[in-house]
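Write out the bound-state structure for 7TS.
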Amino acid sequence: MDVNEIRKQFPVLDQLVYGKPLVYLDNAATTQKPLCVIERERDYYLHENCNIHRGVHYLSQMATEAYEHARQTVARFINAPEAHEIVFTRGTTESLNLLATSLSTLNSQLSTKVLVTAMEHHSNLVPWQQMVQRQGGELLVAPMDDNGVLDLHAYEAQLKQGPQIVAMTHVSNTLGTVNPIKEMIRLAHQHGALVVVDGAQSMAHLPIDVQDLDCDFFVFSGHKMYAPMGIGGLYGKTELLEKMPPYQFGGEMVDTVSFEKTTFNKLPFKFEAGTPNVGAALGLETAIQFIESFDRQEVTKHEDALVAATIEGLSKIEGMRFIGEAPERSGLVSFIIDGIHPYDLGTIIDKMGVAVRTGHHCAEPVMTRFGIPGTVRASFAMYNTLEEVDVLVKAVNRAATMLR
Ligand code: 7TS
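---
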């Protein structure tokens, strides 16, 4: 794995900001896109653009075939048994709203008790919270310890309270914690709950096998895995998706329509109302092929080395406090420095060319849990280098000195 070669695929990285080389460490928010993905989307608009599924003409058939091929590629990438178990959405947030809406419409009894973890992104919290509140139900929360590790005993105790749905993140976007989801799914099933896994932060970093995990649903965003924005997906087991009612209504998702009655299309189309983002779906397929062109273990090793070097470098800074110190972690480092607001630190190192995210990272309850206003978060992708970690550490050091 030659990181310098990889970086040539990402022209956006090769630029100066405020006259300094850009050090892009905000990959948990969105990754940059390689040339092959940009070119795939461009090619689509240059040569193939057409609305799909409804045309008899050549372009429409070609675009439909390409779109359905992309669906098969996503299914293969996460080892879903059937391509129709992949629903294209705008991303994780839309997938989760689809689930919360459709499951509660399917069965109001299914939506009175939902168990989430204490480290969820708002996207995997608010839809469930709103759903149970509409039903007069209850949101249960599995707590974590001071290192950001989920308390499995407490999780089991919560399962005994009988949630119908368990929604958990695979990797925390604020703490970097990798949850033991296989075991958590097994336990949830033992207690008769359906399991939703939020894979927004795991797809780019860890291999996913939905059959091995045995999750009922798995959701993700393309833009966090080198694909364009505006595309993502939902995997669901056939027998569940078959039973679930549509989320949105309109074209594409219908079978027959009269003023009296509408029947719905088969899977996965019944969940894909309206014209989809075809170009982005093709870009997502190319992003998957891009990821698959590397030895994934080697990529993980590289990203782990970046995390380790960041922790080592930053830990020498006076007043440094890491938020999230789970032994199983992936892709990012969150921290604060005593007496310094994360926003001030982020703003100063930005002027040194270093792009990190500051704030609550759409996980306010995590900040409340740790009693802090926010963190500074450096998050990595395969194209980041140890030299960039050095720049980050020096920048944080300088900023801390200035702010004290
Ligand atoms: N779940 C997790 C774990 C996430 O990290 C994010 C986005 C989402 C859901 C929502 O994904 P979306 O693509 O639908 O927006 N996380 C972040 C972040 O950490 N910084 O910006 C977005």
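---
The chain has a mean pLDDT of 96.
The longest strand covers residues 332-337.
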